[in-house]
Amino acid sequence: MSDTHTPIAPTASHVRLGSNAGQPMTRRDGVAKVTGSAVYAADNRPEGLLHAVFASAGIARGRVTRLDVDAAKSHPGVVEILTPQNRPPLQIDPDAKPHAFSWRIEALQDDTVRYAGQPIALVVAETLEAATEGARLLAPTYEEEPARIGFDSGALYEPSAVGIGAAPSFTKGDIDAGHAAAEYSTETSIETPIQYHNAMEPHAIVAEWNGDRLTLDTPNQAIIMARGMFAGYFGVPPENVTLRSPYLGGGFGSKAIPIGPQLLAIMAARMLQRPVKLALRRDQMFGPVQHRGATRQTLKLGTDVDGRLTALEHHSTGMTSSFDEFIEPAANASLNMYASPAIATRHKAVRADIGTPGPMRAPGEASGSAALECAMDIAAEAAGLDPLEFRLRNYAETDPASGKPFSSKALRECYAAAAKHFGWASRPLAPGQMRDDAGRFVGWGMGSCLFPNPMFPAQARAVLRRDGTALLETAGADMGQGAWTALAQIAADSLGLPLDRVEFRAGHSALPSGGVAGGSGHTATAGGALHAAGGDVLRQLGEIASADPDSPLFGAGNAGFVARDGRLYVDGDDSRSDSFADIFARNGSAEVTGEGSASRAAEHAERFAMYSHGAVFAEVKVDPSLGQVRVTRMVGAFAAGRIINPKLAESQLMGGMIWGLSFALHEAAKQDPRRGHIVNADFGGYHVPVNADVQGLEVITVHEEDPFVNPLGIKGVGEIGITGTVGAIGNAIRHATGRRIRSYPIRVRDLVGAGD
Ligand code: MOS
What we know:
Blueprint: H1 30-34, E1 50-56, E2 62-66, H2 69-73, E3 78-82, E4 112-113, E5 119-125, H3 128-137, E6 141-144, E7 169-172, H4 175-180, E8 184-192, E9 204-210, E10 213-217, H5 223-234, E11 241-244, H6 260-272, E12 276-279, E13 295-303, E14 309-321, E15 343-352, H7 365-383, H8 387-393, H9 411-422, E16 434-435, E17 441-452, E18 459-465, E19 470-473, H10 483-494, E20 502-505, H11 522-546, E21 561-564, E22 567-570, E23 573-579, H12 580-587, E24 591-597, H13 602-607, E25 611-622, E26 629-639, H14 646-665, E27 696-701, H15 725-737, H16 748-751
Parallel strand pairs: 1-12, 10-11, 14-15, 19-20, 26-27
Antiparallel strand pairs: 1-5, 2-4, 2-6, 3-5, 7-15, 8-13, 9-10, 9-12, 13-14, 16-17, 17-25, 18-19, 18-24, 21-22, 22-23, 25-26
Helix pairs in contact: 7-15, 10-11, 14-15
Bound molecules: dioxothiomolybdenum(VI) ion (MOS).
Residues 221, 251-253, 359-361, 363, 518-519 line the site of dioxothiomolybdenum(VI) ion (MOS).
């Protein structure tokens, strides 16, 4: 690709937003959530409700030979037991993959056990207690086959895709020549563990049939897509399914596609003609709900005498299930971050007896950058350079993989802002140089952050009424990230109205598709659709006014129109305006309805690479004899295009950094090598950070205008904070103690006696 590009015009509609966007509004659903009036899926108790509990496989692989259905059924309150023998058929084979974005689902299709924790029967009862006891009474027996646990359990193979349809390998330039030309060569191996999403709200569903109409209360990140999938499995048209998901207590990627337990609850509700509730227990959140697959990564970096990369090679082996495939696309983290004349990435995979992994909090970017950022520090050390200086020498002015220019990239500004605020300039180059008053080792580390800016199909509807109020709707999902607030701000601005005149609806399948609350793209996509729907209303109002000889806008034709404070203006001409009220009054109509979709100009998608960027600096203190680590300070600076709500965006970025801390120091699921169950399947054993683990935490948002990424210039903030942070903490521990830990999470046992 040539270095010169003809100048390209920004999207004509790189729009100004009104006075709501940019305000640090407090989340509008906050009071309802903290006072308990927000209704989550499992809070629903329709008349005649039955409770379902699934029994889980206690072995890693084999066959269920017997279930004591009679014992379970004779327990008072137990109504029905679903097993592979009696469960009703599904319209779509759960082992099929009917959709590009679908998984094989464990829904009692046969007596095979594919992993420990897999549902093997469903007990439905009048009470939760009876269903729980019924599940215990099933006392399964098995024909057991040897468990295949861990990376060494099977043959490595080359997957045909990683992540969701991404190429498993990439090569640019001559990697061997790049290594041969290197002055310094480093090789780094890093392991990342199995992690489970563990949203605060466990997966739950309340299913109710009424003839061939199905109503579902279940938390979902992609309501219209999931509705279609549920409808497909049960052989009814999508419009027969109502899916309500007003609130999610977190999703992190695990609440987009249907999972087995949801299908089982829907089956039971149809079979028994009564509503059925199924809510997973915390230990079941380590089973049929997807997880982040473990990785083993190796990076080989070559660096010239000036500290510039000559070769960047990143291999990752991902662990997937025995019966389906999702490979953590970790090596792809090296495609878009640092400039190198030669880049080679490759993935391999191994099958093990575990549920199928899926997307979780920056899938690929999180695990991959955890390794890449350590490898960069190791290479910097070899070249005798400060880690920040080394990254600046390898700054990518264009996208390393595609050669395309970035639609915007303020990473340099992020480095500068975060480094200054952190005080990076006084960092001693050598490790082990700093101690605090208590004698603890102090270390400073950093990492670069990157996340792509996907756009999903999304639609919205806007209704402006003659009384000056409006209704804006899209089936978006608030997982806790603040969509109810940020999207409402965009919705109000699309019509130039104050927020209190606008009713905003989301979280329901009767609304236009809000796309996916995932990929950090929800504000850009659902927000873009809302803004376009409001714009469609303004266009129609303008048409009405333009044709009306009594309107000051008479004859304005198809000039663009904008709105402020209940008035319609010719775009760019403040002298010509008419009020909504007068336009409606003269025209006599009661309301104007508009529709809109999310969009990105095809020309811009083709010409530019689009990413959010950031930099995280971390300080750790390590007790020299106990090995205890505290992350005492983190400063992150992020450039993510237009920020709709600074308070919620900062909260998202902080949340991402906290999940990075969690990845670095806390989270790991351990499988029993014989039976394959997760031995730490609770919050006592599976650690996530608590307030005491998170000390100084500061977020800086760097101003960035991106006229190409989408009409509103929004890039997304949901996942980028976890990238870069993991490596920053690993690097800080190395700087504190001199120890380079190559397996996450970093534990006390890795650091105990660091002072000896
Ligand atoms: Mo996310 S892993 O895009 O919900």
